[in-house]
Amino acid sequence: MTPVDVVLIGRNEGARLVAALASIEGARQVVYVDSGSTDGSIVAAEQAGAHVVKLDMSVPFTAARARNAGFDALRDPQFVLFIDGDCTLVAGFLDAARAHLEAHPKTGMVTGWRSEIHRDASVYNQLCDWEWRRPAGEIIACGGDMMVRAEAWAGVGGMNPQVIAAEDDEFCTRLRKAGWTLERIPVEMTRHDAAMTQFAQWWARAVRTGHGFAQVGHLHPAYFLRERMRVILFGLWLPLVLFAGISVARFQTAGYWVILAVLALYGLSYLRTARGLVRDGLPGREAWRHAVLITLSKIPNLLGVIRFHFRRLSGRAMRIIEYK
Predict the structure, then answer these.
(1) Rg (CA), the chain
(2) Are 108 and 180 in contact, with CB atoms under 8 Å apart?
(3) For residues 121 and 56, is the Cβ–Cβ distance under 8 A?
(4) Taking the alpha carbons of 208, 209, 212, 214 in that order, is the dihedral positive or negative?
(5) What DSSP character marks residue 50?
(6) Maximum distance among all alpha carbons in the chain?
């Protein structure tokens, strides 16, 4: 049986980290990578028997950098399970993922289903929970919870520490380009605690998502292409046309037609999104609420795109965008 090692990353996760460490069973080595916690995270990890790696915080932190440090701290890794410190591992996933990798030598990474612990605490948590739930089978990318074949990880050089958001998508893209297959198995994997109860948190997360669209798209132009096009259309061009219509409406009635046309396009986008969510199995009431946020998200996404390109062109460091 191939040994599995576990890498957790986190900062000031408190009780969430304690629960995450307690949920790990069957691992050979457990490494916790701490990124400047000021609570009792480091002590809790040491008490749980994990090997603790403290990141040098004089260097800009990224989740990718933390995962790289965790992998590098392992002795002779073969299969490595990465989970975030705000997640708990579901019993049975470690063995199921290991068995899948053992049975499919061309599969470089396996993931499963993540779900929210407090799904109904807010519409934002519900939206996260829906994002995690994707069909099983061969995939092109996944989130940060994954079991990776060490050979595949090392072969592509791990994660890119400069990518501050969607670093997992960027890593998966390089895995696929290297010839590896990525799969999601129909097994519950982790329980996540987004702890997102305020609109400002959702907005910051959407800004971060836009930054990820832009940065990963800059590295791999074909990836996130549709997402970037939607952001440019609904986050930039249509608002500009709307403002132009409002200005023209002060002098000509044609401006009102422009305003109505733009609002109609937003309305059609909203209806299409809501119907798509219902078709995919989301309850109707939730679908209509989620569609509002998805439609609105193009604005903060655009801010994230702008932030990335400003940083890139000015040579500024790519610093993380936190929402909690």
Answers:
(1) 21
(2) yes
(3) no
(4) negative
(5) P
(6) 76
| CA-wise closest residue to 144 among 132, 152, 133 | 132
With a cut of 90, say whether residue 60 has pLDDT above it.
no
Strands 181-192 and 87-89: antiparallel
Alpha helices in 253-297 (DSSP H): 254-279, 284-296
Q: What six digits make up the tokens of 282?
A: 């989301």
Whether pTM > 0.90 for this model: the answer is: yes
Taking only the tens place, the pLDDT of each residue in 62-113 is 999 999 999 999 999 999 999 999 999 999 999 999 999 999 999 999 999 9
Tell me the CB-side half-sphere exposure of residue 125, using CA atoms within 13 A: 17
CA distances from 85 to 80, 197, 214, 298 (A): 15, 19, 26, 29
Q: How far apart are CA 64 and CA 212, in angstroms?
A: 13
Long-range contacts of residues 308-316, Cβ cutoff 8 Å, at least 24 apart: 308/210, 308/211, 308/214, 308/215, 308/218, 309/214, 312/218
Q: Rounded CA gap, 219 and 163, in Å?
A: 10
The percent helix, strand, coil of the chain (3-state, each to 5) is 50, 15, 30
